[in-house]
From TrEMBL:
Gene3D superfamilies: Glutaredoxin (3.40.30.10). Pfam families: AhpC-TSA. The keyword Lyase does not apply. Homodimer. Forms both dimers and octamers; a tightly-associated dimer and a ring-like octamer. This is Alkyl hydroperoxide reductase E. Thiol-specific peroxidase that catalyzes the reduction of hydrogen peroxide and organic hydroperoxides to water and alcohols, respectively. Plays a role in cell protection against oxidative stress by detoxifying peroxides. May represent an important antioxidant defense against cytotoxic peroxides, especially peroxynitrite, which can be formed by activated macrophages during infection. It catalyses: [mycoredoxin]-L-dithiol + a hydroperoxide = [mycoredoxin]-L-disulfide + an alcohol + H2O. The active site is at C53 (cysteine sulfenic acid (-soh) intermediate). The keyword tRNA-binding does not apply. One of its GO terms (molecular function) is peroxidase activity. Keywords: Antioxidant, Oxidoreductase, Peroxidase, Redox-active center. Coiled coil: none annotated. InterPro entries: AhpC/TSA (IPR000866), Peroxiredoxin_AhpC-typ (IPR024706), Thioredoxin-like_sf (IPR036249), Thioredoxin_domain (IPR013766), Tpx_Peroxidase_subfamily (IPR050455). The lineage of its organism: Bacteria, Bacillati, Actinomycetota, Actinomycetes, Mycobacteriales.
């Protein structure tokens, strides 16, 4: 079975879809509030407790000063529920927000064009949102493919500029 995205990913220059999602501590996190202070790096990932996702989020953890700075903040988003994200974040020492796109299931991933309808979870999407809500960077990896290092480098370059 092949993967099918809900739609094409949001594009650079477009308005970022707003959201209000619960983090691993069950706190409500709103994109609008995040971007009041700085740019926002959105990192969509398929599922907690999986190899590639653990590696990618572990890299964010290990390089947190690059992903959470005066110019930008990073949040990760998955369809898993907050309690699952809590257990995983504690076990992996993830100190950044891991947001739950659990219900309605995958709705925010759909709005960003990175939801895999056949598998029921998001693809690896990386977006940078400016303080005014404009998408400055957009990338969606192919199903099953981890993000290339160049995606991280370009997203951080755009976020910091």
């Amino acid at each position: 079975m092949t993967s099918a995205r809900t739609a094409d990913p949001v594009s650079v220059g477009s308005r970022a879809p707003e959201f209000a999602l619960r983090d691993q501590n069950n706190q409500l996190v709103e994109l609008e509030a995040l971007r009041d202070d700085r740019r926002v790096v959105l990192v969509f990932f398929p599922l907690a407790f999986t190899g590639n996702c653990e590696g990618e989020l572990g890299m964010i953890r290990d390089r947190l000063p690059e992903f959470d700075s005066q110019s930008h903040v990073t949040v990760a988003i998955s369809v898993g529920p907050p309690p699952t994200h809590k257990v995983w974040s504690v076990a992996q020492a993830f100190l950044f927000p891991i947001l739950s796109d659990f219900w309605p299931h995958g709705e925010i991933a759909r709005q960003y064009g990175v939801f895999d309808e056949h598998r029921g979870y998001s693809l690896r999407g990386t977006f940078v949102v400016d303080r005014d809500g404009t998408v400055l960077y957009a990338h969606a990896s192919e199903p099953g493919a981890p993000r290339d290092d160049s995606v991280w480098d370009e997203a951080l370059r755009v976020a910091a500029s």
